[in-house]
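re: that complex we talked abt at group meeting.

here r the seqs, copy pasted straight from the sheet so there may be weird spacing, ignore it
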Amino acid sequence: MTEARDPTLARLLDSLQERSKELDCLYRIEELFTAQEHTRQEICRGVAEALVAGMQHPAICQAEVACDGFVHRTENGPRTPCHLRAEIVVQEQMSGEVCVYYTGPCPDVGDGPFLKEEQRLLKSVADRLAHYVLFERLRDLRKGRAHVREDGSEEPLWLMPIQMLRESDPHLHQSIARKLLNLLCSMGVDEAHDMLGRVDSVVSAETVSGEVNVPGVVLKRDESVLLSDAPFFMAARHMTDHEILLKVQKWIQDDRAGLFLKILDNPRTTLPELADALRRYHHLVGEGSSLQPSTVTNMRVSLVRRFLTEQLDYIRVAKEFVTVADLRALIDRLIMPVDGTGKLGGKGSGLLLADRILARASGPDRPIGEVHVPRTWYLASDATLEFIAHNDLEDVIEQKYKEIGQVRQEYPNIIQLFKHSPLPPHLRQGLAAALDELGEVPLIVRSSSLLEDRFGTSFSGKYKSLFLPNQGERAERLDALCDAITEIYASVFGPDPVEYRRDRGLLDFSEEMGILIQEVVGRKVGRYFLPAFAGVAFSRNEFRWSPRIRRDDGLIRLVPGLGTRAVDRVGDDYPVLAVPGQPNLRVNVELEEIVRYAPNQIDVIDLERNAFVTLAIPDLLREVGGRYPGLELVFSKLSEGMLQQPRRLMYDPAHDELVATFDGLINGTPFVRHLRNVLVILEEKLGTPVDIEFAHDGEKFYLLQCRPQSHTDDAAPAPIPKDVAVKDVLFTADRHVSNGWMPDVTHVVYVDPDAYAALEDRASMLAVGRAIGDLNKLLPKRCFILMGPGRWGSRGDIKLGVSVTYADISNTSMLVEIARQKGGYLPDLSFGTHFFQDLVESRIRYLPLYPDRDGIVFNEQFLLGARNLLPELLPQHAAIAGTLRVIDVQAESGGRVLRVLLNADLDEALACFVAPGQERGTGADAAAELIGRPGEVWRWRLQMAERIAHDLDAARYGVKAMYVFGSVKNATAGPASDIDLLVHVEDDPVRQAALRVWLDGWSRCLAEINYLRTGYRSAGLIDAHLITDRDIAERSSYAVKIGAITDPARRLQIGGGDAPS
Amino acid sequence: MTANRAFNAFAMAQSQFDKIADLIGLDAGTRAYLRTPARERRFTIPVRMDDGRVEVFEGFRIVHNDARGPAKGGVRFHPHETIDTVRAIAMWMTWKCAVVDIPLGGSEGGVVCDPHHLGPREQEALCRGWVRQLGRELSPETDVPAPDVMTGPQHMLWMLDEYETMRGGRHPGQFTGKPVGMGGSRGRLQSTGYGLVYVLREALKELGLRPDATTASVQGFGNVAQHAIELYGRIGGRTVAVSCWDEGRGEAVTYRRDGGVDLAELRGMTDRYGGIDRARAEAAGYAALPGEAWLEQEVDILMPCALENQLTADNAGRVHPRVRLVLEGANGPTAPEADELLRGRGVTVLPDFLANAGGVTCSYFEQVQSNMNYYWEMDEVLGKLDQKMTAAYIAVADLARRQELSLRDAAYVLAINRVASACRDRGWL
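got the structure back, here u go
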């Protein structure tokens, strides 16, 4: 292996040596120029000698440098044909050349005797000499000017700049002189007319305005006068020196802008060229305050289009807020391929725009406090493509067109493949520079793809963001950074984004992945690094727990530490919720609620272990104590049944119990008010509801992300069709409606408000709650809704609502609280406050229903008239069947299911009966997408069940019959559902065991296929229940499903006969 | 037709009273008087809301009886339709204070509102408004409110501050449920759990059982249960099973260790609400059993300290024959039918009403300490609590034995009789 590596190593060493010689040469030449005492002759000699030393074979190499009339050769012999030369061009004119040549036998390095690097070196040296010549000429001019007027008369202010301009840029001088003459003409200066007349042959008025149908004459021009001082001296007779200077300055700026726009609008300009042009332009002109507003706008639009995005919605806003200076500041932290044309990507652009909007649109009437953005470096989006090309990975681009199962299967390999592929060297260099500037601080590497965060599409959480503790040796840190970037690149080819794009018709879009390398906001506390708190905020509130909260009051989710736990729903923990528009209305009011729903865990970076870790908050506090940043803002001290603001000095981690309430922050600082203004301003300027991510280090507020508020999964506003016949409607609602939709509700659990109110004893009321808890275990998950009077889960007067805990309702898809009018009085509803946060985290919808309001449809007849399954499902609760009704929607509505559509924009809800899986025909595309292909999932399962029955050797396993039931039979199976089979077998344990083994094989295979199709991992997909004649006779166990009243099992055809239909 | 027979907490409290009144043979006048609250005040509280509107809330205070001393009862912030519930609670408070023989009457009050829809400043305005509207009807000598549903120490301090502003001076005895250092009493956390064990200790004596020869199974692992287990252990008893709610699994779990549970060890693996970490418990040698297994354990004592209606006609049959005592730490954990069944099997049920009265007793101690502005050390509080609970048990048990009543009935008889006597002695009836 070592032998195989040797030649490579040798080559590498050679090339490094050459590179070092080349650099050495450049340094030597640069030193010549910086030492000002050298004459031009000395310069020529020095350059020639440095060039020889910089060549691959200096022993046989000679050089000749001719520059602005001076020549130096390192020897006197003639130049050989084996040479390499580069011209020195000053102001578009050749002013000399540099040349190297070999006097010995020409070496061959592949493509001629000289290396590519040597050619580049020669070109660089020639360019540097050209700059030098130009500089020297201008210096001479300046020196010369000092002697022009010895008579003591004062020289006009504008004269020297004009003459310098003529020397350095005659075209521009001409153009300015012409503009000046035109200006003088417009001022009515006759001699200007005359002078212009001498420049262009006189053009008669008729020739210009006459309607002629022959081509115009090309006029002769004598432009020499435009290259003289004459027009300016003429102007001096009619204008002050100062006026002339101002005009000249403006026209020069216009010209620079014009040139810059040319570069900008040229689609072939690469990003680095553009960045260079932008640097030069900004250096010369600044923001261009004297330019026409239209020019400035045009320039901003072009810059935004090239660096940020081509989305028109974005540009429309960005052109008002993002200045040339903003982009100038950005490009110093933009790493890009040499010939790149990429962009920042969605997240980067979104953050930049939001930051600029806030900087420019806030004011004393809408204070937002200080908003900071963490130090950020950007990697342009087309670096992905360069990375792929650099490593010959082009094959992976086809990945998105493969079967999703294959995509899923191959994804882990792609991650590894990417992680083992190096980034192109100059990108790595750029990243090294970024690391040097950022220092040894934790970083977050975020995806910023072109598809992400686009106006109108949500692509949230589909790509990765990775935390890097970024501690240790520089080389290791750089490796870790590159590793994280390649992993994010790989996520473009992950199954979830591919499937998401496929569903939304975005597959053919050429996705490129920009990268944001951001300093993590926070403080070092002991061995940990963490912000005081972080969170997400939405300008629209989709989870209102009080009728006083309006949708545009917004919502904040706050967590201590890193914001990961606020962004994601973690299931076993809760963020603290606050409403920016109503900061005093808190979802949890009682001490017990506040403590139960307080965050218990915290995400931090462990600097010692160089890892991202989740800790229990009490453990962290014990370790870091009062050093926790912003302790008083985040925590309250639980003492004597009260929550009090802790004092850092008084805090005793061994004894004091702290609860993350954010009371200090919400009540004691203007934070919420400021955040509210941030959301309002961003929504107003971006013209769309927004969500933002933020973090706070205890002293400063940082904006981390801003994007149009996304509707994840099932939380989009559902279109409400208006053409549904009243007979097909179960209920409608028009107050306090949130967003969402429940596609296939198969069962309704209805607590009759009148009957409940009439219950005679407390035990019966408690029994209703218990029965609901039992139904929750029995009914298909997320396929049933609960409807009942008043305040569910209330711990006060049980008459006010059904006594349940969250565990009793955890499988429902929606909770509907009904408020019937009583003698002109409308009772309050709870808005689910007793388990509101559980509902939010598990995405159970809540709807308050006011059936007695005008225009509201409430099909009580259906609810009371349908057959009640409770006595059969739960015989032990038969006594309360008059109060609690369980309705099989499919059985009662001719095979249809109930679909509940919620639309917060319209503040309307509709529950109607439709055929299962049926798409809504009325412009429901946005939400319809959300189901993906619902039919496919259950249909495949049913086919597999039929196939199993078909392949079954009934005699061998003693099988009498086979049934399918549950979600597969009901056409409601989702990607995580299993296939419930009921197998009627003979009472023979040996054959039963054999059957179980046979079915287990199927089960495992199907689980694997299901995983490839859907990404849901399970140990097995078949849930088989064996029943015997005795079970059927006793109607025990699952035998009740055969011929059952609700949800009967469906018989499958067994054996290799005709396939069942 | 059914509407007038609908469940009504006050009607239930009245029928319970009627049953005991029959037993005692209470005269019609006393019966009529004690069946209904002595005073009811309803009033309105205007509050300027955060958004500038004025909203008007309905407040009330009901004193059921104050013949034995100043009335004592909670203030609840709760939505409408609670007036009958409040009447019922006021009545129960009268009996509860009487059964432990503390010189207080019974009351209850509140505001019709849902604090979930109110900001803190609005709640403060409600508290202050409530006190202003009741005006001179409040005083440490007449009626002393305490926290109840959706109110807590903070509400009591707002109310106290308003009261003191109206009256001038400091009157910490006007409200109870205050934090220690602001007029609260030590021992509040321990009082209910310890009170249970004081009663249990006396009951064991009566049954001739040595505590150190007994075992117990406890439902719940919250504040009351933990303190009960602690003191029961200190008097020699061994708790072998504890059930609690497993939030993650959404079900209850019973943890059993035959050698007895180690309270300190379990507390170390418990969240703030008595949820025990299953993995750690199993690693420590506890067997995780189904939620209801606590009641099937072969123990001498069952302590339901979690929820109401836990021992029912359905599961009472599964209670192990060894069980001699049911100690009701929760409110109403034993359904009436189960109560009957257990009694029939010779099981003694120590009724909630008596057994968990440690809390209200400590509240009385707070009042006493506040009134004299002198606060006792923990030992003194717990010593006095022991005396009160022991005396209360002995009086109830004595009556039960003499009259062959259940402890529950005996407790009611004793309480109602004490109140009736006080009314008669004052010449009211």
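couple things i noticed - The domain at 18-142 of chain A is CATH 3.30.450.40 (Beta-Lactamase). Chain A is about 40% helix and 20% strand.
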